[in-house]
Amino acid sequence: MSQSVKYVGLDVHRDTIAVAVAVAEDGKRSEVREHGEISNTPAALTKLLGKLGGSGVALHVCYEAGPCGYGIQRQVTAAGHDCAVVAPSLIPRRPGDRIKTDRRDAVKLARLHRAGELTAVWVPDNAHEAMRDLVRARLAAVRSLRHARQQLSGFLLRHGHHYHRPAWTQMHRRWLSGLRFAEEAHHIVLEDCIATIDAAKERRDRLTVQIEKRLAWTLAPVVDALQALRGMALVAAATIVAELGDISRFSKAEQLMSYLGPVPSEDSSGKRRRQGGITKAGNGAARRMLIEAAWSYRFPARISREQLLRPFLTSSRGRHPADVLTVRGCSQMHQT
Q1: How far apart are CA 232 and CA 229, in angstroms?
Q2: Residue 128, by phi and psi: left (phi above 0), alpha (psi -120 to 50) or beta?
Q3: Would you state the pLDDT for residue 302?
Q4: Residue 25 scores a pLDDT above 80
Q5: What is the rounded CA–CA span in Å between residue 87 and residue 89?
Q6: CB-CB contact of 327 with 312 (8 Å)
Q7: Under CATH, what is the fold of the domain 4-115?
Q8: Which tens digit of pLDDT belongs to each residue from 94-142?
Q9: Domain edges within the chain
């Protein structure tokens, strides 16, 4: 008895899912047909799988990666069917195709999935996805802090206040507290900008602590191994591992570099070969962390004061104050 294979394309939105089916039976490919639209709920998806599946029928489901996450993929896989989450940027597109609807997108996904022309993304488990969300929340906090600092610097520049030393230090903070303006409203703006910077900094530090506390997941040994490299601290290593996921899925180093995007772009034809800047394709967060680690690699290897005192200060409760002061004194001698 031959097995019928159905390729199901799903165009997923917040409330609805457009469905299309492409059937392949006995080596013959039938016309791709629309199956209608269902609600984006687990019950409606379960009913759809039961209607399309059955004895002697293999379902291969696909949908584009997007804001709806991996819930559909996990539900379809738990039901015993194959489900691929497709990279939207790698879907083949016709240059002259100017009409885009949900039904057309579902039909195109089903047809391309049957032809084997779609590229699936790596799907993390729940624990890894939670860690990646935490890392991305810290990256958002860093961007908010940078934006708040830029806003304050622009405000001071407009009013002729220049600080000719390294900014965002204790001395810079004391300099900010001593600024005077002719208008009271400008003082209000200054205090609001400083408060915004303090809140963003506290948010960043709070999320950094949470990352350190929640490193007990399957790829935590990889994070520890990466920190053996110079320029690679905890946050950078956790960000790279959380964004890359299972590195073993890359069979060659060229594939990993192509995914990260630090390889040069190229526009060659015939005997002419022209290379440009890096492609910046793939995961931007992991690429940024790698570049920051590369810049830090220029400096000589050393142990920071915080890393040196961390095992002592975390266990300093209940110890004699003289022991803690001795450790701090040794760290100062180590720095000099």
Answers
A1: 6
A2: alpha
A3: 75
A4: no
A5: 6
A6: yes
A7: Nucleotidyltransferase; domain 5 (3.30.420)
A8: 888 888 999 999 999 999 999 999 999 999 999 999 999 999 999 999 9
A9: 4-115, 126-212, 219-302
Given a cut of 80, is residue 28 above it in pLDDT? no
The mean per-residue pLDDT over the stretch 300-313 comes to 69
Of the candidates 247, 223, 248, the one whose C-alpha atom is nearest the C-alpha of residue 237 is 223
Nearest one of 117, 116, 91 to 105, comparing CA atoms? 91
Q: Which tokens hold the place of 136?
A: 């991305």
State the pLDDT at residue 319: 47
**pLDDT per position as a tens digit, 55-90:** 888 999 999 999 999 999 999 999 999 999 999 989
Q: Which two tokens stand for residue 44?
A: 């409606």
The residue type of 162 is H
